[in-house]
Amino acid sequence: RSCDFENVPGVPLVYWLAGAALSAFASFGRVGDVAELKAGISTGDNTRFQRFWFEVSKSSIRFAQTDSGAGPWVPCNSGGSFRRWYGNNDIVMLWDQDGREIAEHPSSALRNLDYMGRPGLTYSKVSSGAFAARLREAGFNFDDTGRSIFGADVNTETRLLGFLNSAVAHHYLTALAPTLSFTSAEIGNVP
Fold it and tell me: What pairing do the DSSP bridges indicate for beta strands 73-77 and 141-142?
């Protein structure tokens, strides 16, 4: 029935979704109801403002956001290859004086700064295959390609991590994000 498709956010043409999968959009809450999904910083010049952790000295990396006496680089979730559960913690971001140089760059966008350094989940915005969520440790910034998800508590985040890496979530994401670009909207609309 065509009215069943009206419950799917954005009303994509998902003729292959079975009745039970379609009814889930009307019957259940969505990921966005139990978690906040956030886009991160766009530096405007990743070549200048981001490095692999091994390209800078360890003493110049600040592993805690509150450690103002340490170096100018902080760990950063920045997308990366397909990896579920944990990983892709390879990037550091220049964050001297709370990102002053990035903020002054004409092409930058500093988003969701209150969430920087908080633990949660992360995922790559663009994928060449399936979606994969990963644990996000405290002390990390995140950029626009390493989006983040924040639950009310660690139990909610643990359940979300398991669900988002499941075949069920993959089934819904193939309907909501057929282009393999996973924005906060698509992830937030998974029932």
Answer: parallel
- Residue 90 CA from chain centroid, whole number: 15
Nearest-angstrom CA–CA distance, 40 and 21: 31
Phi and psi at residue 134, in whole multiples of 5°?
A: -140, 155
Note the pLDDT of residue 7. 46
Beta-carbon count within 10 A of 86 CB? 13
pLDDT at 32 over 70: yes
- Concatenate the DSSP letters of all residues of 76-135 into one string: EE---S---BS----EEEE-TTTTHHHHHSTT-B---GGGTT--EEEEESB-SSS--EEE
pLDDT tens for 119-145 read 999 988 887 778 889 999 999 999 998
CB atoms within 10 A of CB 153: 7
